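SEVERITY: medium
COMPONENT: batch folding queue
REPORTER: lab tech (J.R.)

DESCRIPTION
The queue accepted two submissions in a row. Attaching both inputs and their returned structure tokens so the on-call engineer can compare them side by side.

ATTACHMENT 1
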Amino acid sequence: MEISKGRISLAILLMVAGTLHAQQVIVNTVGKDPFVGKTTEVVYKAKEGTWTFQGFNNAVIKTTYKPADYSRNEQISDAVTVKPPAVGTKVTVAQSQTVEWDNLTSVVVQREKLYYKTGKEVKVKSASYFAQGDTRGFRFQLFNDEQIFGGGERAVAMNRRGHRFNLYNTASPDYGLGAENLNFSVPFFISSAGYALFFDNPSKGYADLGLTDKNTLEAGFSSGELTYYVVFGKNLDEIMANYSSITGRQPLPPRWVFGNFVSRSGYRSEEQVHQVVGKMRQDNFPVDGLLFDPSWFGDNVKGSMGNIDWVNMQKWPNPKQMLTDLRTKDNVKSVLITEPYILQNTKTYAEATPFLATGADGGPMMVPDLSYGTGGLLDIFRKQSQDFIWKSYKKQVANGVSGWWLDLAEPEKHPASMMHNLKDYGVALPMGADEVHNVYAHYFSKMFFEKYSSDVSDQRLFLLNRSGFAGSQRYGVLPWSGDVARSWAGLKSQPLVLLGMSLSGLPYIHSDAGGFAAAEGADPELYTRWLQFAAFTPVFRPSGTTLEEPYKSIAGNYTKLRYQLLPYNYSLSYDQAVWGRPLMRPLYYYSFADSVALKAEDEYLWGDNLLVAPITSQGATARMLYLPAGKWYSLANNSVTDGGKYINQPADIKQLPVFVREGGFVPLWFSKDTIKSTETFNSKDITIRYYPSAYASTYVWYDDDGSSTRTLERADYELVTFKGITEGKKVTIDIATNNPNQYGKKFKRTFRFELPVALAGVATVNGKPVDAGSFGKQPDPFQQLSNEFLTVEFNGKPVKVEITLK
């Protein structure tokens, strides 16, 4: 970075409000002595506007620019909930103006350009403001070898450099590989140079990531406060932790989120619903949820959207009893679809009229070109509108509904001339559609979350929503990837879309497994490959195709594997809720140093211990895949492969390549009875599969009751820590808990330590030899082989287990 030789004038005016500690520092004229003290913000008055810098205790810097000629400074985003604290700050004048915070992050102002540093290293360079027509925004100079990730839903390569994206949530039916603009835009971009940029502006805009100029990242917006955050971190894990510390982390979902969901088009009667559930049980498919499509509120979606109630009482004679029976007799949760549009002549239209978004004349604005008829859009930004729609939802919750499926909430049709009322959020003037479009679904999710917190406080929210904004994860959203084509191009796009969203802070992204928009003719191979992949994604929601053999049995095996992995999968929700870790993680999640891993973008880590390589090519019987350094065990047959290289892995239609990292612990759920749903899960009796390694490893397993709210706040959970190492023929595993007080005469755990290698039948627990009856063999229906195990009773006190291998 060049440094100006001329001394730059600097003065500091301290705004002291009856206290000795400065809260604001203003930089504007000559000053020789540095300022040292606590600040909440540092202001620099430039030639044509004002820069404000705010440091956080973690490695985050907030920057806001207010141009002198700009009046649309409304901030309607609530993406960031944390206010900058008073932090130790040093402002100095050398050959440039420098603001440095206690965490050793700093911003340097030089010739109207900004440079952001950690320690002495410049991470973000030549940041500047620009105005072009009605667009305002920022430009940044990129390093030559820099890669850029994130940005929300984009069906393109993980490295988004060289693309220009719209920042405008867009429904894109029948999309496949190459679709750049989809339902969920998040203006959060991560650099392989060790930083991220979050543009906290939800207005219609764009992000040019080196397309127009290969060395420039440019983000422009049509309205709103001009603010961005620089988030530092040496790897993705640190960046995601720092970003989620200001935008929030996903609350714990109900455990049944990790079950199987029946999701098909056309449940047209109570009789059909019972037939579908009965068929699933008959075929031994476990199931936890059933999604009711628009037929629940009308025989024909045209003209019925907005009823928000059961209408045909011949086909749905007793909805409350049906929902109760599904929940209590079948252990199946019911999820209802809903939309933000209220069509004319529907059951709620007359009452809804005052709560609809308006036109320029102040009256309700009708949208005539909806696929389902003519109607208005609920103005979700008004508290009265929220109360109106919640009244209908609350009625269905009382009937026994367990979750919601919010569709079309981009909004799919949102005329630019439509106006919204945000007075309840402190904005005096009406705002146009383009100013609020990207946070419409976000505020709808917020409404659900807040209403559940106040009115249904004993339930964890289940909310599918295909659109939103940064911070939507705080409201418990389970986004799906929109109307992806039921094609091989559609499938190929999904690992990229899901990983991109995972790196954008939305950890429960998933797809309609099998695709949504149907191509001509059914393709059982495509559907089977999609289900195999979906079994290792946050939500497993097959999208309704009937399979014949052999595909039916293969789909059944992976559905049952999903349940077998329940204790492992549910633990991932704790990693997200506490640390901000996505459930799906690219191979380079902990280091950008592996250049090969950076290119292996159609593989991913499911948690830390499982590596998944989806099959996305028709007729494939093998695929090339990259295994990072170390030894990797096949989940299917326990074979061991050395990593640090590409391998050609066999993968006939029965096999999805999945590998377990050496040293990995994988908790599993086995049951003597047929598993029908997560409702029968027993966390007191768990198999812990350990994959031996000469390197010490640690795994923390999370457990709670799977349903109670405020579980983390009340510390009503348990963390069991397993530490393992293999030295020659001896495996040593240490067990400890954070919550020993819950153990006693009525509570203990049984752990079956299963190893994918032969045991010698000799072991000790806390130095005492175990008897032969503690050993056994357990069949694994997925692997179709048996693994040896050692049973250990755990009563909350530390345990050391030593197992001898053959």
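ATTACHMENT 2
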Amino acid sequence: MSTAEPSWEPGLLSPTQNGLVRQHLEEIRASHAFAGSKRTQDFLTLIVEHALAGEVDSLRERMIGAEMFGRPVNYDTGSDSVVRVKATEVRKRLTQYYLEADRKPAVRIELASGSYVPKFVFEPPEPATRPQGTVIPLPHPDLSPAHRTTPVEAPTGNTLSHGEESPHEAPASETVPHPRQRKMLPSNRILALAAALILIAIVSYFGFKKWYTDSHARQDIRSIAILPLKNLSGDPTQEYFADGMTEELINDLGQVSTLRVISMTSAMSYKGTKKKLPDIARELSVSGVVEGSVQREGNKVRISAQLIDAATDRPIWAHTYVRDMTSALVLQGEVAQAIADEISINVTPQQQARLARSRPADSESQDLYLHGMLQLDADDCQTAIDYFNQAIGRNPGYAQAHAGLANCYGRLGESGRMAYKDAFSTQKAEATKAVELDDSLPEGHAELANAAMTLDWDWPAAATEFHRALELNPNSAIVHQKYAFYLVRTGQPREALAEVERGVDLDPVSGRSFHFEGFIDYFSRQYDQALSLVKTVRGLDINPPDWSFLLGDVYAEKGMYAESISEFLKSGNGPDSLGHLGNAYARAGQAAAARKTIVQLESNVANDGVGRYEIALVYTGLGEKQEAFKWLEEAYNAHDVGLVYLKIDPCLDPLRSDPRFDDLLRRVGLSK
């Protein structure tokens, strides 16, 4: 058995070895062990590429922190362990990858503890075993002198007389062949050589065949994107139905915990695209793509779907289903199960039961629900509420429609478009109803978690519901992102950053996912990282979010008040924007401008009951602590949603040393 030996020196690998390392790196990135975290994939790629280039100086903690995570070059590595944490994760995932590998790779990538310089261990080829009966051709006597056998003396048993020349004795100038060679006639030598060449050809053929088969074999699919199903109904008004079927399929397949499924938001960005499937798969870091179509005619619906192996751009599985409209949503679970079976993904009995769970039989209520989801995705909550209520009117037991309503009211409350208590009370009621009707509905548990935070300030209950929602659908980007906000609000920034990165991995080409990540960076006091993120996303080919509010916050904490004020002025006249604008004015020394925002906010409080927390922010910026605490008490009595940020909001830092602040934290359930 061969023993692998390290064969590496920075920048000194051969082109062939470089190619082997890069090929193996891509295999690792696409593996089950690494498929769940794009940031971890990128970290491994960064250190490998620097090592291949011989740039060992770039593989120091401080330099990696600057390049990978946007830290300033002189940042304090002692208090900021982001590089160490990510390196530890890479080591664990590498260990998992090699434990799960079904064959020995030609090269192995290792990252020793305490080091950021990877080692490349090359496996030498196994020695070839000589087949029985193989003829090894001997050198021909007519070969050049360098290839002839060593001269030997004549046999001692020669009976010729002294001075007598044998007729068969070789001239002195020629090499005398070995006795065994003299027994082989020239024709035998030719036959032996031909046999050897045939053997080499046979071995080469089967070796090539094995290499070709291995290199073109379908890789295990552990990550998948479901592209928007095409509407073949000939009626543009049916687009909502095709999109709804796409979303339901994504949600159903997302319940399979061993599979990474790209979110609806990112999938929809490819609607109508002319990009090739391998390019889409590469952008989304997936190994499989599902594409298909929906055709609706009367009470019949035909869904065609095929699963494409991204590595070969070849279909693995394809099927067409024809169903009555009454079972259209049930069909998505059937398709999801078929795909999971085809790629040999293990689906637990509990997941199988959820995929096969009954759905409402009324086709019109399904239509209304799908219309509502389309409006919810567009953030038109009022219109979505109308559709969901109509769906529930026809079918009171429609759990998904109740969860949709809970989502709408939660958004209205958190954005200040509706009085907090009214919004969050309705959110909790609808989410509770959804879970009562279907305890396996992840959306219902996610909305219960949000209501536990915003209405009840019951942080343990919120954690329980988030864990249940992620257990039911580990591929829900939005649930990961909402859970990240729970974590950061409760003072767990490191865990929040990891969770929001998971959301980005599942929703990698959506501006929304990066927007969430930017705010988690801000509340984690990683201001430079937030700015680096904005810069990076602006360079991507995606629909960018409105960064003005986030930039206003970040610039204010960096003391760049002119830039902060400029950004807040772009972010609208909502209570959030006014409060943070007033805080920036106050900290910039523009007290008169700050007080004008207080007047506007007091008008909002009188008209809509929204803005008390924001008034407290302005008074904090002005240094008027008494007024700030007065309005924080007002916010507490009104159950203002701003108080969920009490533990982490940088704008409130001047108040944290006051005993009244600790008391308020305790009452909101966020005490130290």
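NOTES FROM REPORTER
Confidence is low (pLDDT under 50) at residues 1-7, 128-185, 208-218.
No errors were logged for either attachment.
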